[in-house]
Amino acid sequence: MNKLTSKQLFQRIIYNPLFILILGAIAITSWALNLGGIGILVLLTVGGLVLAFNRDIMPLLPCLIFTALCATSKNMFSSRLNMILIGIGGGILLVSLIAHLITYKPKFRLFKLTLPLILVSIALILGGVGYLSVDQYFNGAIFIIALGPIMLLAYYIIMLYLNPPAWVKAHNYMCYIMLTLGLIVVAQLITFVLRSESDIVDLIRTSMDFGWGNINSVSMILTLSFPCAFFIGYGRKMTAIPFYIISFLMYFLIFFVGSKLVVIVSSATMLAIIIYSIFKGKNRGYLLYAICTIILAASIYALMFPDKTIGIIEKIFIFEKVSYAGYTTLFTQAYNLFLANPIFGGGLGFASETLLVSDFYLFYSTPFQIMGTLGIVGMVAYGIYYISRAVIMFKNPNPFNIIISIAIIGFEVLCLMDAGTFTPFPFVLIIIVLTAFMEYSNNQHGGKTDTIRMS
To answer: Regarding predicted confidence, which is higher, 358 or 163?
Structure first.
């Protein structure tokens, strides 16, 4: 038996799903103990080590994505100590990235989203020109950079350095990242429930502040995560059952936290994935076993706790009447803002005396956000961006692309009445990463000459 070299041992560690789970445990522990700054520092430092000793960038991704869920409150970043810790972690990561680029010199080229993301960045930068004052414009500077240049850089570096060893299945690794992300929010939900003095029935669809987001954010994370857990089970045999069960449990949790729209969209997502698996999958029997296991477990719980079960069922299937007056006000305001400056829109620095969120004004709808803040230039840029993403998603209908595309479509539908597409971390980063992996999948299995494997 050949002895593993230090490099091979390092790769065996960072490409093991257990590595991703450990990073997830760091994120949830730091969040639960209100030590978000330390959690981010640890994750970024591990990411720096990955960059320093590994050419492939894939094991860095969980370090970056999980940092967003370490935020324990909106005021966390006002702490000087936390900012110092995050600054140290960011510095380590930046130095490692520079060293990585020097060691493994990139071969510059155009990928499918390079030009679309450049156009989006330009639209974001030009947003509000001719309408906002200089001070107002710079109110949205952080989001302009985060949504534009940073996402462009992230996508480009991923495409240049997504080069796992031959024995690693990139799509499985990505789905383990998303599975763990889902488990993190599940653990946060459980922690919130355990800390609350209220009965679990009373907590269904109540307002919950997790620091990094609310129950809508949790719903969107779960909507993106449960299809990835499902994919890991797809094509397996006996080992498929636990992944199918986890996928269904994540889906059912959405009924506890999600609005009527989220429940409908996630249900349509799950139904589409199940139908695809029935017609195309090779382990339909194991999918049936998983479904039967869940039904059996639910039946046993119902028999043991009938009153609580009835209370839960009544609560999750009774939706409060939603007033759309707030959305109507926002959409009207976005339209008026577009009319006021149709070419470049009102910009991300636009603010109002009401409904101000973070450092720029959210209209809680992708099309209205683009129209109101970025104008015609933004509509054209984002139109090209979405068309380019659609081409990537449907170019090669392999199981990974199909299941992930279904998840992304569900997310985009939710964002017709939410702000996920303008929330850089974690949502836009997740979408960019998933799209990059689908492009990688196309290149690896499409037989094209534009393979991204580097010599």
So the answer is: 163
Q: Tokens 């060893």 sit at which residue?
A: 165
**C-beta atoms surrounding 132 within 10 Å:** 22
Q: Which helix (H) or strand (E) holds 22?
A: helix 17-32
Cα–Cα distance between 361 and 420 in angstroms, integer? 13
Give the residue with greater pLDDT, 226 vs 109: 226
Backbone angles phi, psi at 361, to 5 degrees: -85, 125
Of 89, 105, 121, the residue that ends a domain is 105
Which helix (DSSP H) or strand (DSSP E) does residue 356 occupy?
A: strand 356-357
Tell me the two tokens of residue 53: 């000793």
DSSP state of 237: S
Q: How far apart are CA 28 and CA 95, in angstroms?
A: 26
Is pLDDT of 353 > 50? Answer: no
Residues 160 and 19 in one domain: no
Residues 6+ apart with CB under 8 A from 14: 50, 54, 59
Burial track 46-72 (b if 16+ CB lie within 10 A, e otherwise): bbbbbbeebebbbbbbbbbbbbbbbbb
- Contact criterion met (CB below 8 Å) for 212 and 68: yes
Token couple for 244: 């199918």
What letters, b where the CB count within 10 A reaches 16 and e where it falls short, cover 278-294?
eeebebeebbebbeeee
Please count the residues of the chain: 455
Tell me the pTM.
0.93
> Do both 125 and 271 map to the same domain?
yes
Q: What's the token pair of residue 198? A: 């209220």
Last residue of a domain, one of 105, 136, 158: 105
- Residue 355: what pLDDT? 42
Cis amide bond preceding 426, omega within 30: yes
Beta partners for 194? none
Contact 282, 399 (CB under 8 A): no
359 and 316 part of one domain: yes
Residues 76 and 139 placed together within one structural domain of the fold: no
Q: For the chain, how many structural domains are there in total?
A: 2
- pLDDT tens, position by position, 286-330: 999 999 999 999 999 889 888 888 887 777 777 666 666 678 999
